[in-house]
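anyone seen this seq b4? input:
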Amino acid sequence: MKSVSKGSEPIKRGKDSWFSRFNVTDELGNTKRVGKTVRCRTKTEAKRLFDEIRMDLMASDAPIIKENITLGEYLKGHLEYLHDVKHLSPNTLRGYRDIVETRWVPRLGAVRLKDIKPYMIEDQLAWMRKSGGEDGKPLSGNTCQKALSFLKTALKRAQMLEYIPGNPCDAVDAPSRERKEVKVIDEGEVQRMKIALLGHPDVRFAAAVSLTLDTGMRRGEVCALRWQDIDLEAGIVHVCHALAEAKSSDTYNGETIDVKTPKSSRSNRDITIPEGTVTMLAQYKQLQRYRLL
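predicted toks r here
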């Protein structure tokens, strides 16, 4: 079984530069000393970064030195690191996987990691803005900026692991973001929708949409509601969970539906709902009870 030593005490090698060594022992008992350097200001931060390097060395089944690793291979391993070590949410992992598979791998995936140059990244961003979307449609500056931000963070870790001497993204200007006007429905449109929902044949759908119109809850929050989260007598909804769809490889239990806490601590909240929606929910609860019987 592969093992990695705790690592030597970080040694300061210059301004904001720290060095440590690890003993990496493979399954056959062969031990190799691996030296690593990180750039940070304090020894405490250096220890944290070296702990991440150690966990990465333990999680990786590939050889320690990867001279010819391609960008595609590295980014695939980076996604595994974010899943196994960082334990990011399945929804976040799904977004990052989409960036890797649709933005960077198709045109640059076969290029060796150490051969990636700033001009290649700029050319790729220019292609994204022109025809990088579905059916050759242009991508927004916001989407391109997210793709560059992910790559920059991923290559920062590659630099820390000494796969590359520097981060080529540092020399690339981020695409400009567009300010989009937020479009909202007015009160009259809300009332017309609620009137239409009164006669809708699918009570479950009508209750969910009406609840969304009244509360502004996110789709995942509405889909995660349980009856124990709704106080029909007081007319209050307790928002404490959210539902997200993800690939089984991105979740931690192999399921494709992930129940998680809401997006932020402030998302845990109580919301008062009007009497009409309380009545609709009570009717749906009664119908559901009959269906279960």
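The mean pLDDT is 86. The radius of gyration is 25 Å. kinda curious what u guys think
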